[in-house]
Amino acid sequence: MDPVTHTLTGLAMSRAGLKRVAPYATPVLLLAAVAPDIDVLAAPFGSLAYLHWHRHLTHTFLAAPVLAILPVLAVGLLARKRFDWKRAYLLSLGAVLLHVLMDWLAPYGTRFLLPFSAKWYRLDAVALADVWIVTALLVAALAPALSRLVSSEMGARASTGRGWAIFALCFLALFSFGRWVLHERALAVLDARLYGDSAPSRVAAIPGPFNSFRWTGIVETPEFYSLHNVNLLDEFNPAEGQILYKPEPSPLEAAAAQAATRTEAFRVFLDFSAYPYWRFSAAEKPADAIRVEVMDLRFGSPNHPQFVASAIVDSGGRVLESGFSFRPPLRR
Q1: 0.70 exceeded by the pTM?
Q2: Which of 27, 102, 143, 222 has the CA that lies 20 to 30 A from 96?
Q3: Pairing between strand 308-313 and 319-325?
Q4: Ordered alpha helix ranges (H), 216-290
Q5: Which pLDDT tens digit goes with each residue over 208-266?
C-alpha cells in the first residue's frame, strides 16, 4: 500500500493502546510503519533501479528484525527521558511486519521470502491506495482534534481517539478480508467462461480504489489476452472484452526480442511482470531498426501503457538503447 496508508496505520496502532506499552511508542510506531519503504532511496537512480529494489529486501520477513532496529535507534538516541529499548523494539517489529503483510494485499505484490526465493506474492485484493481504507484511517487520525474543538465549545471532555483507532484497524482487517472474498468471486466469474472457443489459461482480477464490486479482469489464453470491466452486481458477458492477440513475431522481430531480453531493463522487468504483453514496431531511426516493447497488463493497456520496458534493436541484432518507464509518453 501507499506510504500515507502505512503512516496512518502506525498512528492508529499507537492510539489504539500501544502507546501505553512503552515511552515514545508513537514516534517508534510511525517510523516503523513506513520503514520498509526506505527502498525509495533507489528512486534517484532511475526508474529501473527503483523497480528492482522496491519491495526487495526491506520488505522481507528475514530483514524485518534488522529493519525494526532503525526506528528504535532513531527515537531512542533522541529520547530525553527513560527509554524502554526492548518494548520499543517489539512494537517496531510488529509495525514492520504489518507493513509487509499489507503490501501483500495489493496488485504490485511483494517478495517477502527473499533472498531464498525471488517469487512475487500478491493477493490482488486491495488497491494500492484504497479510498475507503484511507478514509477510515484519516477519520481516526483527525477524530481527537475534532473532539477537542467540539469540547472547547461545549465544555465536554475531549476524546482520546482510542475508540476511533480501534474501529479503523478493525475496518482495515474486515474490509480487506471482504475485498479478498469479492476478488475470489471475480476470479471464479472470469474462469468459468469461454472466450471465443478458448478456455482461460489463467485469470486475474485487479481492484480499483473506489468500488469494491468493480474489477479489471485479465484473461489469458494461448492466443490472446482479453481485458474486461467486471461488475459483480451485473451479468458478466465474456464477449465484451478487449482482445489483445499475442504477436507472432517475424524472424527479425523474434531475434530483436531475444536481444532485448538480454538487457538489464528487460531482465528486471520480466522478473517483475505478471502479465507481459509484447509489441513490435518500426523504429524511427536508424533504418530497419525494430522497437521492442513489453508492458504489464495489470497496470495499463496498449491505449494507456504503464510499466513498459522498451528497446531499439538494429537489423544486425544489436541493442542500440533500452530502458524502463513507469509511465512512458504515448506514441501516436
Answers
A1: yes
A2: 143
A3: antiparallel
A4: 251-260, 264-272
A5: 999 999 999 999 999 999 999 999 999 999 999 999 999 999 999 999 999 999 999 99
The three three-digit cell numbers of residue 263, written as one number: 538487457
- Nearest Cα residue to 179 out of 138, 209, 134: 209
Q: What residues contact residue 301 under an 8 Å CB cut-off, 6+ apart?
A: 227, 242, 244, 295
The CA angle 129-204-267, to the nearest 5 degrees, is 85
Report how far residue 213's alpha carbon sits from residue 63's, in angstroms, rounded to the nearest whole number: 36
How are strands ordered across the β-sheet holding 308-313?
276-282, 290-296, 308-313, 319-325
Say how far residue 90 (Cα) sits from the centre of its chain.
26
Cα 97 to the center of its chain, rounded Å: 16
What are the C-alpha distances in Å from 55 to residues 4, 39, 110, 119, 198?
Answer: 16, 7, 5, 11, 35
Domain positions in the chain are: 3-171, 251-325
d(CA 283, CA 292): 9
Express each pLDDT in 66-86 by its tens digit.
999 999 999 999 988 889 999
